Structure formats: C-alpha cells, structure tokens
Amino acid sequence: MGSPKSPAADQTLRILGLLASSRGPLAASMISQRLGLPRSTVYQLLAALQDHGFVMHLPEERRYGLGIAAVELSGAYARQEPLARIGRPLVTALVDRVRQSCHLAVPHGRDVLYLIEERAPGSPHLVSDVDVRLPAQLTASGRAMLAALPPSQLRALFPDREAFVHRHDGGADDIDRYSRLRSVLDATRVRGYSVERGSVTPGLASIGVAVLDHRGWPVAAIATTFAEGAVAEDALPALAAEVQRTAETLSARIHGRSRRA
Hints:
Residues 6-68 form the HTH iclR-type domain. With 261 residues, the chain is α+β, with helices and mostly antiparallel strands. It contains 9 helices and 8 strands.
C-alpha cells in the first residue's frame, strides 16, 4: 500500500510542474483551468510558492512564472550529477551481462558528451571516453537520441549540409545530409535501437538506446560498442534487448517515460 498523499503538497507540485513545462508565465485562471483546481486554492498556493522564491509574480502581465529558487534547484540537480550516479551501476551491470564495453552519453547541441565509459576486459580501445564529445549523427548514442526528437527540433539542429561533421570516410554508414539522417533515424525508430558501424572508429560497431524523461524527451542514451564481426548479425537483437532493458531502468529511476508508453 502506498503512502497517503498530502493534497496541498500534490497540488503545489502540480503547479510547479505545469509552470516548468509551459513556454512562458501563466495566469492564475489558466493554471486553475488546466489543473482542475479551484481558483482560490491556486492563489493560496501561488502565494506560498512566491514567499519561498519558487514562483515570481509578473504584475504587469498578471501572470506567474518560475522563481529563482526553482532555478537553483535545477543547478543543484546538475551539480549532483544524478544521471551519472544512477547510471553508473546500471552500465557496470550491463557490461557484466553482455561482456562488451558500454557507456552513457548526454546530448550537447549537435554533439554527444560521454559521462560514463565502462570497458569490458580485453575490449578494443575506444575514443568515447568520459568528457569526450563526438558528433551526434555519427554515434549510436547520438542517433538513438536524435530519433526521439520531433522533426522540427531535428531540422533546427541540422539546418544545412555544413551542420554535418565527419571524422573520416565512413562508407555506407556515413551521414552527410539531412535526407540520409532522416532515413537512418526512421529505421532506428522502427527497430527500437540505433546501429552504428565504423562511423566513429573503423572496425567497431555500436548499438544505442535513448533514455527518456517524463515528457518523452531524450536526456541520455546507453550504448554498447564491440568489434565488427564479434557479434553475429542474428545476435544483435538479443544484445539490443539488454541495452534497452538498462535504458528503461534508468528512465524509470529518473521518473521518465517508458519507450513502450
């Protein structure tokens, strides 16, 4: 049996969640309407949140937005590195299960930034070390996250051919234009995981799965890298299922959305 909820606490958190997900400040009447709360209750909770700095009132606009205390919470979240702390034991366990090197990366503009790199014994050297940035369209981690973005966001990231960066001639797996990227990402969505062969390092291949937040937005990806030929083609789905299992677990632990939702 779960713990009993505090109605006031629940309503307060719903207001903060609504303000955080909105494009701009909202009127109290709009908050009341969207959350189905009495307007008097909304005003009382907004006043309490304003007193503690979590909400700011814009009198000229008659709207409410997030305050500095909410911004400080965001900074504290980043400082505590929750994704790395929660993700490390999951990635380590994944390495133990699949006997291949695995890593966790986060989006950084058109790049991915690697937060965790766990090497399997006897595995080949990888360039995707901690704090290394690589072009997202070349990596399995990046492709997994890009595939979870809406088309408008994807086009904003890659507006023209100059946005595509290359490490070397990636051959058939190279992505150098938007139409090719869309094709690869469409296949990723259908398959449920991304595949990269030789675009980052010749002779190495990777499988990646996105980690989604509560909005379904890609906040990270987990991937495994192995020598091409070390994993039979018909064994790739089983390997991908292990990566998916780990990504789903991390999504659940950050209260994110399941990929199957």
